[in-house]
Design brief:
mainly alpha, elongated
Length: 94
């Protein structure tokens, strides 16, 4: 997968990507923390949540960078331009 196709997928599926990262990081952190002996269960849960939260914030920041890049490149405007023209044409027919 090249950079451009990955960027296109992220632009179209930002929330799905962030949600997937959150779920994966939470499960991975649970697995790691529960493999550590000698730590209370409540501490393991707190650490797992904190790790997942940190990775989710990083994913949101990455999503913001992708959104900014998309906005600066003009690709976003081009995608929405088609929708605006279509709705204007349908309004004219009424």
């Amino acid at each position: 997968m090249d950079f451009e196709s990955a960027r296109h997928w992220l632009v179209e599926h930002k929330l799905r990507a962030v949600g997937s990262i959150w779920a994966t990081s939470l499960l991975g952190s649970f697995a790691y923390n529960f493999s550590q002996p000698g730590v209370k269960t409540s501490v393991k849960l707190i650490h797992a949540r904190l790790h997942a939260q940190a990775l989710t914030l990083a994913a949101l920041a990455g999503s913001a960078v992708v959104e900014y890049y998309d906005h600066q490149s003009g690709d976003k405007a081009k995608r929405y331009e088609k929708h605006i023209q279509t709705s204007q044409n349908s309004d004219l027919k009424l």
